[in-house]
Amino acid sequence: MMRQLQKHDVLKVLVGMLALLFTAVCALAGPEGEDKRYAMVPNVVIYPGQVISAGQIRRVEVTNPNLSGDYAQDFPEVEGMVAKRTLLPEQAIYVASLRQPFAVSRGTQVRLLYDGGHLQITALGVPLDDGSVGESVRVRNKDSGLTVSGTVLSPGIVQVVAK
Question: DSSP per residue over 81-147, as a string?
Fold first, then answer.
């Protein structure tokens, strides 16, 4: 009888420890249905055209249940981007307020690339538009004066689109 009582007591202790562990895990995870949301906010005023650095922004927990829309939630969404409009301290940064930095700028010199399979041509050109990687821009060929369209491949390089 004494031996059974001891096994029973050990089981009670183990069940109690498991219950305590489960309670601790639930407390760390937070109440059911509660999803923490985060938003990126500036620490300082960020003006249009400024490239955003990590020191200018921080991540905060969203406490306003009415905050909606497509706002940035983490550093990679904001860092290195360019502000399209003035961003004020402590106000959520919306994705629509950001753009990729320009890889080519209007009036600067770029290299034009044309790849027609067996024929590859390079030339110098001057963009007539600003453009980020992947965007289409118009470029004037410096030698011929012709205006062509192309896709920005990387900083200073535009791939010409065949007509």
Answer: -EESS-B-TTSPPBGGGEEPPPSB-TTS-EEEEEE-SS-EEEEEEEESS-B-TT-EEEEEETTT--E
